[in-house]
Amino acid sequence: MKTSKAKTALPMRVKRAIEKLGADISVARRRRGITSALLAERAFVSPRTLVRAEKGDPSVSMAAYGSILFALDLTDRLASLADPAQDAVGVALEEERLPKRIRMPRGS
User: Fold this and answer.
1) Is 69 within 8 Å of 62 (Cβ atoms)?
2) What is the DSSP string of 35-91?
């Protein structure tokens, strides 16, 4: 069996984050007392895709993860993944580019 580039080319931090997402989905499903077959049906994904998602398989599509999170009523977290208001690096860079002073135009 050939290993996909999606699995081998990922930085370790990304791989761990996806694995944590999968584990968190699994915990959320079990806490709710939902079988994997029922969650797969509610999320409109195959049972195999759900198993792969719960294992943190990076080749599972973002749409599949989104559908699964929707079925678990967790889409609010998905919506805030790249929220500009939570982007500390972007805010810092923006502040760095602010002008030191503002001058009025001459001769108005």
Assistant:
1) no
2) -HHHHHHHHTS-HHHHHHHHTT-TTS-HHHHHHHHHHTT-HHHHHTTT-GGG-HHHH
pLDDT tens, position by position, 35-79: 999 999 999 999 999 999 999 999 999 999 999 999 999 998 888
| pTM listed for this prediction | 0.77
Contacts of 69-73 with CB under 8 Å at 24 or more apart are: 69/25, 70/43, 71/39, 71/42, 71/43, 72/25, 72/28, 72/29, 72/32, 72/34, 72/39
For residues 27 and 39, is the Cβ–Cβ distance under 8 A?
A: no
- How far does CA 102 lie from the centroid of its chain? 40
pLDDT band at 108 (very low <50, low <70, confident <90, very high): low
Q: Which domains does the chain have, with CATH numbers?
A: 5-96 (1.10.260.40)
Report the distance separating Cα 38 and Cα 65, nearest Å: 15
Residue 40 to residue 71: CA distance in whole angstroms = 9
